[in-house]
């Protein structure tokens, strides 16, 4: 069974989502199915079909979250050290074309949210950064073309 690396905050978010699905969403969809059944003919009942589809989505997501959580390998980045980029590192990058700086933390594949500065370990940029040090340059192919970044800083917190 392959372990899934993630930060403590990512683990907490996933367990909270699982709890919400089980305690709020699942009972609500069960009520919606029961209510739709009361309306009669199920073959022409759009409410029933929609509720069943929602139930299918919820059950699939619950199964996925339970699987990921059971294989979670929670890593505390504040206990990591070093001068090279690895999982959990906070990385300060400068775009070599514009000079614009961005900060990212390299997190597990189920935690990624670029807008929040959380870069999934499976993202092309994160894969290019792993093992690099301050002052190194990396080139990454993005949907908008090739981009070059210089690593300005690395920290673990």
Describe the secondary structure blueprint for this structure.
Elements: E1 4-7, H1 8-37, H2 46-70, E2 72-75, E3 90-95, E4 101-107, E5 118-120, H3 124-129, E6 137-142, E7 145-155
Parallel strand pairs: 1-2, 4-5
Antiparallel strand pairs: 3-4, 3-7, 6-7
Helix pairs in contact: 1-2
InterPro entries: GreA/GreB_C_sf, TF_GreA/GreB_CS, Tscrpt_elong_fac_GreA, Tscrpt_elong_fac_GreA/B, Tscrpt_elong_fac_GreA/B_C, Tscrpt_elong_fac_GreA/B_fam, Tscrpt_elong_fac_GreA/B_N, Tscrpt_elong_fac_GreA/B_N_sf
Family: Belongs to the GreA/GreB family.
Protein name: Transcription elongation factor GreA
What can you see in these coordinates?
With 157 residues, the chain is α/β, with parallel strands linked by helices. The chain folds into 2 domains: 71 residues, Helix Hairpins; 80 residues, Chitinase A, domain 3 (Roll). It has 3 helices and 7 strands, in the order βααββββαββ. The mean pLDDT is 91.
Attribute tags:
alpha/beta, Chitinase A, domain 3, elongation factor, Helix Hairpins, 5-stranded mixed sheet, 3 helices, 157 residues, two-stranded parallel sheet
**Count of separate structural domains:** 2
Integer-rounded radius of gyration: 21 Å
User: H/E element string?
Assistant: EHHEEEEHEE
Structural category: alpha/beta
Biggest sheet details: 5 strands, mixed
Strand content: 25-35%
Overall pLDDT level: 91
Total beta-strand segments: 7
Distance between the termini: 29 Å
CATH architecture annotation name of the largest domain: Roll
Multimeric organization: single chain
CATH topology of the largest domain: Chitinase A, domain 3
Task: Write out the strand line-up for the largest beta sheet, numbering strands in chain order.
Answer: 5-4-3-7-6
Give the CATH superfamily of the largest domain. Answer: Transcription elongation factor, GreA/GreB, C-terminal domain
Shape: elongated
Family: Belongs to the GreA/GreB family.
Keywords: DNA-binding, Elongation factor, Protein biosynthesis, Transcription, Transcription regulation
GO molecular function: DNA binding; RNA polymerase binding; translation elongation factor activity
GO biological process, one term: regulation of DNA-templated transcription elongation
